[in-house]
Every structure is written in C-alpha cells, then in structure tokens.
Design brief:
- By secondary structure, the protein is an alpha+beta fold.
- It has a single domain, classed as Bactericidal permeability-increasing protein, domain 1 (Super Roll), CATH 3.15.10.30.
- The chain has helices at 14-17, 31-44, 182-191, 199-230, and strands spanning 60-69, 74-84, 90-99, 102-123, 129-152, 158-163, 167-180.
- Strands 1, 2, 3, 4, 5, 6 and 7 form a 7-stranded antiparallel sheet that branches.
- The longest helix is centred in the C-terminal third of the chain and has 32 residues, at 199-230.
C-alpha cells in the first residue's frame, strides 16, 4: 500500500509539464522545498500548455463581469479586463498534512496584480451612465485550502489525486491604486450626482471589488489546472 506521508510531487503531472518545467519531489514535512517548487511551477506554468491541458493564468482575460452597489443603486460593469502579475507571485506558506488517508492542503500566495479594462457605471434610478478606461494596481495575499484524496488502479496501485473544492480568501495589502481619466471622474460627478457625490468612496469600493473578483477567478483557473494535472501522474512512492 502506498504511503501519503513520504513524498509529494506537488500534485502536478510531470506529463502535463514535460515541456514547461521539471518539478522537484518534496517530503510533506519539507515546507521550504514545497514552497520553492510551487513558486517555480506557478511561474513557468502560468503561460499554459500548447494543447491547453493547462490554461494560461498570466495574462488572464475576463471578457465581462458586473456588480451592483445596492445602497447607492449603481451597477458596475467591467469589460475587456486583462490581469497580469500571476507569473511573478510567491508562495509564502505551504502546508500539506496527512489526515484520514487524505492530504489537507493550505497554501498562501503573495502577488502584485495589474488590472486594465473598461468600466461602466450606471444609475439604476435615472438610467444615466458613464464609462472609461481604468487601471488598477494592487498587492494581495490569496489563501487556498483544499483536500487531496488518492485514487488507485484496479490492482490497488496509486494512480493520482482528486482535488476537492477549494476555499479562497483574498486579502488586499494596503490600498489599491486606481488610474482613470479626468473625463471619467468629471462625468461621474456630473451625470450621477444624486448617488455619487462621494465618487472617491465608490471608486475605492470598486477597485477593491475588482481586485478580489479577478484574483479569485485566476486562482479558480489555477485550481482547475491542478485538478487536471493531479488526476493521473503515476505512482510516486512504492514504499
């Protein structure tokens, strides 16, 4: 019977990564090895694979997403969003613990994210709207928690791992920087005065909302890449 507590190949398939990066095998107890290898994987695999086995995470494209500020009765839409920075992130904490035949994973990531795109703000009361290009720069920590469960072949040999649903926690460091045109700010005050007298407050909420929505989406793709890679990478320990 295989043992889970000896070696972890970072749950990433050597087959899927053969054209991208070689991953070092690490003991579950060797946090530094795991952090270093994961950071290397995240950087090199961020461009994806030619056959789309792994999807690109840097740059990450979001055609459209929206949110409504209920109190102010303002709808915000983001279009043609491009996020970069995932490639250069750092794994600051990585912990894998065997528990009841599975592995509990907890990984913290730190990254500087740059988001560009078009924003449209619409008053749900008057129907008036303003739009324009924006750029958001932010530093953040993203925590991922998930459970890895082993799968076996018909003859009870280790085949791969299934990756359970992840829990994501986005924590922004400091205040994100938002750059927009003077025309957008002037139009915001002129066209939507009844609910947006303090437009700086709305823009503050808007940029924090955009950062975490995009970060959570990018890490969602990262977890899907992990699931594809972990499903079948062969026996890593026959002890």
């Amino acid at each position: 019977m295989f043992k889970l507590n000896i070696v972890l190949v970072l749950v990433f398939s050597q087959y899927a990564l053969s054209q991208i990066v070689k991953i070092e095998q690490c003991k579950l107890s060797d946090a530094e090895c795991i952090k270093t290898s994961q950071s290397k994987f995240l950087k090199e695999a961020s461009r994806g694979t030619p056959d789309f086995t792994l999807k690109s995470t840097d740059p990450y494209l979001v055609p459209h997403f929206a949110h409504t500020f209920e109190k102010e009765k303002v709808q915000v839409e983001f279009k043609n969003v491009v996020a970069t920075g995932f490639r250069n992130q750092q794994v600051t904490n990585s912990k894998f613990t065997e528990k009841n035949g599975a592995i509990d994973g907890e990984v913290d990531h730190k990254l500087d994210l740059i988001i560009t795109g078009e924003v449209l703000l619409k008053s749900l009361e008057s129907g008036k709207q303003v739009s324009g290009p924006i750029t958001i720069e932010a530093s953040l920590n993203e925590k991922l928690n998930y459970v890895l469960s082993p799968t076996t072949t018909a003859d009870n040999k280790f085949k791969g791992l299934t990756v359970g649903a992840e829990q994501k926690q986005c924590n922004i460091i400091g205040e994100p920087k938002l750059t927009s045109s003077a025309e957008l700010k002037n139009a915001l005050v002129k066209e939507l005065p009844s609910k947006l007298e303090d437009y700086d407050g709305i823009l503050k909420d808007l940029k924090r909302l955009a950062v975490c929505m995009v970060a959570d989406a990018v890490y969602g793709v990262h977890m899907e890449n992990m699931r594809v890679s972990a499903a079948d990478y062969g026996v890593y320990n026959n002890a």
